[in-house]
Amino acid sequence: MANNIIVASTSVPIAEYIRKNVEQVTLMEPILLASDLEDLKEKIKRYQARLVFLESNFLDIATPYLVADLKGKNEKIRFAIFSFEKMVCQEVERFYNLGAVGYLNYRNGLESCLMGYRKLLEGKDYFPEEITEHFADYRLGELKHQELTVQDMELMRLLSRGKTADEISGLLHLTYETVKNYKSRIYKKCGIKNAVQLLLFALYMGLISPEELLKAAFGEGGSMMKKGVYGDSEE
């Protein structure tokens, strides 16, 4: 059966509560529940879901690779985030940069969330205005212009965390020369000249947190400074 909606939460009572809310604005469209990432991935594939409502903790450790993996071959699927916790703009922006089309926070009230569900079910995006006015619109603006691929973003994420080309080649099962070529391509696409600019760019895109940036630059073992990474764009 196609066109299903999925609500994903590690808490069954929360998932049931969200399902009841969504049912208020749907026309009896099937709504499935998923309790973990593997369950979610399987249901996305089996039921060809068109819209997934993810509790924010599902994406706490998400990368562009993970989101792409969840989508699989279903290019039409859309993801929206819901939360009951107070969230800062940077966290919501990270979800946005990962491809989310909406964000609903129950601290803003039930009516606000129901309005968001209506817009999302109509095929529109929905983010509270107080958040979107602070967005750095990479996903629809500069990122689209640069045409960064999922692999580009994953490589950038690893580089910004202090991984060397040799380490990345093992993690991504690519040759050392391929990693170097991809890195050079990313630098050219983004206008990056050195690793300092790479860190700032990755931070701005939500691929690395401020804490991870500091660890990559100055932390034990992974220090980009100690490894001499703060050089030109080819090293």
How does this structure look, described?
By secondary structure, the protein is α/β, with parallel strands linked by helices. It has two domains: 131 residues, Response regulator (Rossmann fold), CATH 3.40.50.2300; 78 residues, Arc Repressor Mutant, subunit A, CATH 1.10.10. Helix content is 50%, strand content 10%. The protein is built from twelve helices and five strands. The protein has a five-stranded parallel β-sheet, with helices on both faces. Strand 3, helix 3 and strand 4 form a beta-alpha-beta unit. The N and C termini lie far apart (50 Å). The C terminus is likely disordered.
Keyphrases for this structure?
235 residues, alpha/beta, Rossmann fold, Arc Repressor Mutant, subunit A, 2 domains, five-stranded parallel β-sheet, 50% helix
Summary of the model, kept short:
The protein is of the alpha/beta class. It has helices spanning about 10-25, 35-45, 65-70, 90-95, 110-120, 130, 140-145, 150-160, 165-170, 175-190, 195-205, 210-220; strands at about 5-10, 30-35, 50-55, 80-85, 100-105. It has 2 domains: about 5-135, Response regulator (Rossmann fold, 3-Layer(aba) Sandwich); about 140-220, Winged helix-like DNA-binding domain superfamily/Winged helix DNA-binding domain (Arc Repressor Mutant, subunit A).
